[in-house]
Amino acid sequence: MKKENTPLVLNSEFQEFTSDSEHVFSGELLQVYRDRAVLPDASIGTREWIKHPGACAIVALTDSGECLLIQQYRYPVRQLFWEVPAGKIDRGEDPLQTAKRELSEETGWSAEKWEYVGHFYPAIGYADEIIHIYLATHLIQGTQHTDADEFVGVYQLGFQEAMKMVYRGQINDAKTMASLMRVDEYLNQRARHQKD
Q1: Is there a domain that residue 5 lies in?
Q2: Are residues 71 and 16 in the same domain?
């Protein structure tokens, strides 16, 4: 294996190219493909992957510094999880619209201030899903209006307590962990810049 001295540089010699693609399953949310890909050594490999419309995750902070978290049962793993509000991007919808809609639907709260924190890819080995992270502040409480098949509890926890739950393993949902950690660093950077 070749060892690089500059690990932050992506090396294009490892890129793969699609030879042909077969659409093997069409669901309400997900599309599944089986591709033949040309690998870096010119051999052909099989790549099964899921096409996803993308999603948004929202870290919503009250004026007193509490974070809105939800509890939701996730059927594939048969567990109840702590999560930040989140949801998929509907066709033709801007990610910020999605974030505003999902926060309102899942928690009943809305926000006057929205900041884009970044994005990440939660399942690069088998899906093209991208999740956009938003920080929502100056919150206004309203009424929860979830989808008919969605059952969600809403809670307020201190942001630092939520961060401790990540490190203690009490929050195990990847999007929630990533979103809280990215927002924590975002807020820390902003505080450092304000001191300078």
Answers
A1: no
A2: no
pLDDT greater at residue 95 or residue 12: 95
Does residue 187 sit in the same domain as residue 93?
yes
pLDDT in tens, 3-35: 556 667 778 899 999 999 999 999 999 999 999
Q: What is the mean pLDDT of residues 36-48?
A: 96
For the stretch 116-150, pLDDT in tens is 999 999 999 999 999 999 999 999 999 998 888 88
Q: What are 13-22's contacts with CB under 8 Å, separation 24+?
A: 13/40, 14/40, 15/40, 16/40, 16/45, 16/47, 19/44
For residue 41, the enclosing domain spans 12-51
Burial 53-63 (b: 16+ CB within 10 A, else e): bbbbbbbbbbe
127 and 168 assigned to the same domain: yes
| Residues 41 and 65 grouped into a single domain | no
H/E segment holding residue 72: strand 66-74
Do 136 and 111 contact (CB within 8 A), yes or no?
yes
Distance from C-alpha of 91 to C-alpha of 54, rounded to nearest angstrom: 10
Three-state secondary structure call for residue 22 = strand
Nearest-CA neighbor of 111 among 146, 135, 140?
140
> What pLDDT score does 2 carry?
55
Same domain, 19 and 107: no
Model confidence band, residue 1 (pLDDT cutoffs 50, 70, 90): low
Clarify whether residues 33 and 71 are in a common domain. Answer: no
- Evaluate whether residue 102 is within a structural domain: yes
